[in-house]
TrEMBL record:
Keywords: Aminotransferase, Glutamine amidotransferase, Repeat, Transferase
InterPro entries membership: GATase_2_dom, GFAT, GFAT_N, GlmS/AgaS_SIS, GlmS/FrlB_SIS, Ntn_hydrolases_N, SIS_dom, SIS_dom_sf
Protein name: Glutamine--fructose-6-phosphate aminotransferase [isomerizing]
GO molecular function per UniProt: glutamine-fructose-6-phosphate transaminase (isomerizing) activity
CDD domains cross-referenced by the UniProt entry: GFAT, SIS_GlmS_GlmD_1, SIS_GlmS_GlmD_2
Amino acid sequence: MCGIVAYCGAPPAVPRLLSGLKRLEYRGYDSVGVGLLHRPDDRLCVHRAAGRLTDLVAALPNSGLEAVTTGIGHTRWATHGQPTAANAHPHQDCTQMIAVVHNGTIDNADEVTDWLDARGHKIATEVDTELIAHLIEEHLLEACDPLRASPVTTTEGPADRVAGPAALERLVAAVAGAVEHLRGSWALAVAMDGVPGIVLARHRSPLLLGVTRTALMAASDALGLGPHVEDVRELRDGDVVALAPNRQVSWYDRGGRAVAPPDPLRLSVRHVDAELGGALDYTSKEIAGQPAAAARILDTVAGRLVGGRLLDDLGLPSTLPVHLLACGSSAYAAAVTARLLTQFAGLRTRVMTASERIASPSDGDVLTVAFSQSGETADVLACLQDGRRGPWLAITNNPGSTLARRCDAVFDIQCGPELAVAATKSFTTQVLAGAALALALSTSRSRRDILAWERVLLAVPDRLAATDALAAPIAAELASTFAGQPGWIFISRGAGVPYAQEGALKLKELAYRWTEALPAGELKHGPIALVTSGVPVVAVTAMPTQRLAVNLREVAARGAQVITVGGRIPDAVLPAVLPAREPPWGPLESVVALQHLAREVAVELGHDVDRPRNLAKSVTVE
Ligand code: M6R
């Protein structure tokens, strides 16, 4: 996970770095730091804090920052070592002259540690990134003294030995040499005391470089670059890049040889509306934003489902088996879509949790549909590297993302920035995109059939708005009754199961409650043993309702507190406005009621609903 930024050029660098970090905080927010080079002699100062960006800002000095021309920054989601100030990036070498920020994981950290230990380096933290700083130090020392056999013994740093006009080039060579020792993934930005500029490197972790009128800016993703960049280029695996304060950029390959830069990307960095606009938190703003978001995406597909026009416009074939892959909430949206593709469109499908992917026996081309709100989820991106058989479609909220850039076609869910960590409107709009795709792929269905379901689809925004109004106050009442319950069970049938799973995930994430989510028919096969007096059982109404009603009687007989969601069975406790006949994509509107329930329980328990503990918006490590 984590986000990195780098800025090189005209002052003021610090506000630019901080605003880049703010935009990247969705990637991790448990600790944060910056490494700053001060004029006139590029003196390096490192500042780190446990907690959020606001904690770092409070720890920065009150004066002297206006002299900063260049810097690197990092917002962290801990993978190695606790989220403390000491473990926050930038990490440094023995001499404290080198500062490194890193996104990714070093797989051979133990081996590198042993090697550095033997050469006398003092490793201060458990964080794999620190090793990179020592490796760079080692390579700088070696460049000065190729015959050096003895370990590091001096506190005299390598900076003075590489000072002068060639300093940045020497740092490039040292970074290129250092990464040769590593296995794993990295996007790196390196600053060094006395060296004017920054060095970047990348291997299997995205890193973009953009140019503004006065400076160079690098970031883990397009959002971090901010609105003023032009000419954005993505580093290739193995690239090492030097950024000089005069905005000169030099590209090198993994051997340190000069290479041509990659072509510029065509991407638009979307403006992020970070205002709460009267809402109590981003989660409630984003739940309430679903009718508008749904209307926006449906507007783009209306009239393009019959005859598969949507497919033609995306440049995709309509006859291939479909593989769907995603993680978390996006995987539940993929599950809804897969069911529709199989049962309604009659296509062969396979849903894969991206983190658990296994290569399937090759039986020809498939259409692979990757669902990812952020388009930066490492497990999803890793699937792209496993080999491709046929076209890839990204269903994403981020058309500038790594996933979108690497897929053959992009279906932009355009639900607007989702700043709360828990997925809400992105889930709803992913389901709508999946439903539209499946209707467009239903070539064996009659035109009349497709048009009838298209009309039901186009009425989703109204039903979402009606559900929002009805469910919010009732969810608050339920939360005040049930918030103290430590364990909850979520059930449904058929097309309702992924929505029950999504509701359970929301409660876990926001309220930190243990949840079990399963098809209602599975209760008797074991999980019903969990039901004791007072355990809340949340049942999402779905067909066949008679069988679900039987399961509810069984849990009620054992003392469960049944919370029905939707309509009909018998009269829902938590209302959701559903179409008269269940559509092939199931009871989508119920999810709004479930989102309110999870948020209200979290609020009742006093949690930060937008930034739940241990989570990050975008999971950028495998
Ligand atoms: O950005 P992505 O859709 O690829 O993210 C996938 C999951 O990490 C994400 O849906 C996660 O489960 C959310 N926190 C759910 O609310």
